[in-house]
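Ops channel
N.P.: pipeline sanity check, posting one input/output pair.
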């Protein structure tokens, strides 16, 4: 590892440590504070070991300090953000009565701002009963199942994009993210996914809530399936994502555009139909059983239109506009719709043809949505960042597009012939 590379990695871990230390200093939430202390220690050890040329040891220290230790401690002690309790309550209600939402909620903790699919992640805790032993906490905690959904989807996406060896000009065989790391001529192994998991982008939500991780994993799987020419699988992944949170809807448009550009209209239509049908199958039973509660808790509450104000109130542009009064709320909704329309038009004008291009387009749309939403949190922006980094971790440099009908990316030099 060259000196410049050592300096870059060391600086990155130090910046992550500084960011983690901000939580014990400024956050009032105990799970965030505990994560901050553990993660900062792990990142500092990672910076020190990387400085002496041991990058793998540094990555292991970051994973241990930022992910493994705080996650296990918080799970075994029953600490976490309120989202964990909300998911587990939904799973319990689903098993007991078939209902998902608390009728006429009076406090923030009684709201469930998720679509019915999220309740499935709370079913394991309900199945384990009301025990409070460490086995029940470990196997029933919703964060564990959120993490399992994320890593399962990333593993499946990796398999879809694995393909066979592809020879790049002037280099040896490159395996497209198969069982081992991607290797390029003159360079070491590229292991972006473990770094992404160790980074605060994934480590913090994984330890304290985990609620957005299944959505991220399903979006990655949908894009990978679309790029590999698997429209039914892509549609099923999109249905799962849309059954968790309505913010997954932009992923449907991006995946369909990717399929249409690389595979043709029929696979794109098939993907869209599977996504729509699967979403209806997962969402409609809960919607028909509690239509009013679903509307108030899933749509009105996150947008600041419920009787109880949402705690998602980071000073993002949309929230600042909405705070100016009713006209401000309508203005930010108008800007949000205009941003969504602009991204949709870009899919028609210049549809994405690679996993990277599709992930970037989806990340752009989600970033605009989170910035312009009437209520939001800075933490929501972790999802677009995860998509951007993930796409580059599964696409070796020099691969520019997907060959129609093959599912194997073609090198740039071959694409020009």
């Amino acid at each position: 590892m060259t000196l410049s590379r050592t300096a870059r990695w060391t600086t990155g871990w130090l910046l992550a440590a500084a960011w983690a230390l901000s939580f014990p200093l400024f956050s009032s939430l105990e799970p965030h504070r505990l994560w901050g202390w553990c993660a900062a220690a792990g990142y500092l050890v990672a910076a020190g070991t990387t400085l002496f040329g041991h990058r793998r040891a540094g990555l292991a220290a970051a994973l241990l300090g930022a992910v493994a230790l705080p996650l296990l401690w918080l799970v075994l002690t029953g600490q976490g953000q309120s989202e964990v309790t909300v998911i587990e309550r939904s799973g319990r209600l689903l098993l007991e009565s078939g209902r998902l939402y608390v009728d006429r909620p009076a406090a923030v903790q009684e709201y469930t701002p998720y679509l019915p699919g999220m309740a499935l992640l709370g079913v394991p805790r309900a199945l384990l009963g009301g025990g409070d032993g460490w086995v029940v906490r470990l196997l029933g905690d919703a964060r564990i199942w959120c993490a399992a959904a994320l890593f399962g989807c990333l593993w499946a996406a990796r398999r879809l994009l694995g393909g066979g060896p592809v020879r790049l000009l002037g280099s040896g065989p490159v395996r497209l993210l198969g069982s081992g790391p991607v290797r390029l001529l003159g360079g070491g192994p590229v292991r972006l996914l473990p770094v992404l998991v160790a980074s605060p982008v994934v480590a913090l939500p994984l330890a304290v809530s985990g609620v957005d991780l299944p959505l991220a994993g399903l979006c990655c799987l949908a894009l990978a399936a679309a790029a590999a020419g698997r429209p039914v699988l892509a549609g099923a992944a999109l249905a799962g994502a849309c059954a968790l949170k309505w913010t997954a809807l932009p992923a449907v448009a991006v995946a369909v555009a990717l399929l249409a550009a690389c595979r043709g209209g029929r696979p794109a239509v098939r993907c869209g139909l599977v996504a729509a049908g699967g979403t209806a199958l997962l969402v409609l039973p809960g919607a028909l059983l509690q239509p009013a509660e679903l509307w108030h808790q899933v749509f009105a509450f996150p947008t600041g239109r419920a009787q109880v104000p949402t705690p998602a109130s980071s000073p993002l542009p949309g929230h600042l506009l909405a705070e100016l009064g009713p006209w401000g709320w309508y203005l930010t909704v108008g800007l949000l719709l205009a941003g969504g329309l602009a991204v949709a038009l870009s899919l028609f004008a210049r549809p994405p043809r690679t996993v990277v291009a599709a992930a970037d387009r989806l990340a752009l749309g989600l970033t605009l949505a989170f910035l312009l939403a009437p209520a939001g949190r800075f933490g929501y922006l972790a999802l677009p960042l995860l998509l951007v980094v993930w796409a580059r971790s599964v696409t070796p440099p020099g691969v520019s597009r997907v060959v129609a009908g093959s599912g194997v990316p073609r090198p740039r030099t071959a694409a020009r012939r």
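N.P.: looks fine end to end. The CA atoms of residues 10 and 51 lie 6 Å apart.
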